[in-house]
Automatic annotation (TrEMBL):
GO terms for cellular component: cytoplasm; nucleus; plasma membrane. The keyword Phosphoprotein applies. Residues 135-160 are annotated as: Disordered. It holds the Pfam family PH. PANTHER family: SRC KINASE-ASSOCIATED PHOSPHOPROTEIN 1 (PTHR15129:SF1), SRC-ASSOCIATED ADAPTOR PROTEIN (PTHR15129). Signal peptide: none annotated. Residues 13-116 form the PH domain. Residues 140-156 have a biased composition (Polar residues). This is SKAP1 protein.
Amino acid sequence: EEITLKPVQDTGNILKQGYLEKRSREHSFFVSEWQKRWCVLKRRTFYYYANEKSKQPKGTFSIEHYSARLAFHLRKDSRKRCCFELICPGKRTYEFTAPSPAEAEDWVDQIQFLLKDLSSLTIPCDEEDKEDLYNDVDSSDSVNTASHNTTLNQDEPNIEMEEDDIYEVLPGKQPNKQ
């Protein structure tokens, strides 16, 4: 089965997208230092394309473990307040210029929000090996499971309840005392 590549706007789950200038890793006399790219932020991945109609990204990277911050030092011109960077120790730093300072702040805020959301996941959805660590609802080794179920089921007439019992007595049902 062949996978057809779609333009980026058809891929769904997009959190933020728009044109940014991306600083090229290697710049020379012939290549501009800042190149206009259509950038797309999805749940875990940052994509950048030549333009918004491109089917194939020029680059992509996972944003997990990265941090985003405004970076006014990247440019010396009037656009310096529009700059931000994505940094991860031991990995490539990505540098961008947004169309406006407000837009740069919004990109940083969106990325930070996403990173915070990724780091706060308590139940992993795609890691099968961790599934049992969080499944405490139906644990069969629980000592109180049987007594808990029968105490809540008050249809049985011979249930004894002590004064320090933690279960509530339903109206109209009185516990049998001996």
